[in-house]
Amino acid sequence: MFRHALASFAASVLIATTAQAETAMPFALDWKFEGPAAPYFVALDKGHFAAEGLTVEISEGAGSLDAIPKVATGAFPVGFADINSLMKFLDQNPGAPVTAVMMVYDKPPFAMVGRKSLGITAPADIAGKTLGAPPPDGAWAQFPIFAAENGIDMATVTVEPVGFPVREPMLAEGKVAAVTGFSFSSTLNLKRLGVPADDISTILMADHGVALYGNAVIVNTDFAKANPEAVTGFIRAVAKGWKDTVADPAMAIESLIQRNPAADAALETERLEMAITDNVLTDYVKANGMGGIDADRMAKAIEQTKSVYTFTNAPDAALYFDPAYLPADGSLTMQ
Predict the structure, then answer these.
(1) Collapsed DSSP state (helix, strand, coil) of residue 331
(2) Where are the chain's structural domains?
(3) How far, in Å, CA of 298 to CA of 213, rounded?
């Protein structure tokens, strides 16, 4: 009897200790629960976060800029956001406790998406036409660089500020000739609205002179300093989620649909596969693993940003990306 009670007590202490050891890391996404969000749910469902001693709750976002102030204020310890917007945020809020720690979109999905029937087949075609651009959109934030690299006079473009919910519908209705957005979001949304695939012109900015990086995992630096192992564990779990997703996109979409039952599985699978092929599994990532950045490319990205944005403070790559938390155990390898 005593031994049984002692064993029960020991078990309860073990459970309590395990619970206390877990670190809560709520994660703020940039956008809705669509295909490219699936890898994070895979990391949850396969126990990758739990194996790192982390309790992770994933929240939707409202655009590429949305997670930055959430993480900077400490409302969320980690988030997913456009690193170029992070540069500007840190310039405008010097000393804010936020930085990127894991690059995910090695090739950014920033795109100008238009309709061929409305005269959009190449970057310069937007001159003299109307561009729909949501003000909080990461692709719109980089459009001036795209314009400069392709000789587009911004004065010749009529920019129509639009909300995210009406962006693709306005293009589908011909009210604008093109929109800025993430390639996998705008393209697939137009298909869902009935625009024929052969009428959609998806122009990736990265294919037309833009050297910028895309979205990264960002962290509150105060949290990271206090919980370095948790941040490294989070990155490791995310990489495993992406690796599992690359191996079996259909499985990943099942995890997504559990959180968004109204989603079209076939459409979200296509969206996810676009993100994998065009943005995540690049030649650089295949050769070097996921998560890191190339210093020379980052320097060029900063120079391109300087061409269209006046920094108040001298830009410093070390403020925008900290590789110190990347795991060194081979878990970032994507082959």
Answers:
(1) coil
(2) 26-107+213-325, 110-207
(3) 8
Given a cut of 50, is residue 18 above it in pLDDT?
no
DSSP helix/strand/coil, 240: helix
pLDDT digits 0-9 by tens, 226-280: 999 999 999 999 999 999 999 999 999 999 999 999 999 999 999 999 999 999 9
- Per the listing, tokens 């693993």 go with 289
CATH topology for the 26-107+213-325 domain: D-Maltodextrin-Binding Protein; domain 2 (3.40.190)
pTM of this structure: 0.88
Number of H helices, E strands in the chain: 15, 12
Q: Which residues of 193-214 are buried (b: 16+ CB within 10 A; e: fewer)?
A: eebeeeebbbbbbbeeebbbbb
Q: Which CATH number fits domain 110-207: 3.30.450.150, 3.60.20.30, 3.30.360.10, 3.40.190.10?
A: 3.40.190.10
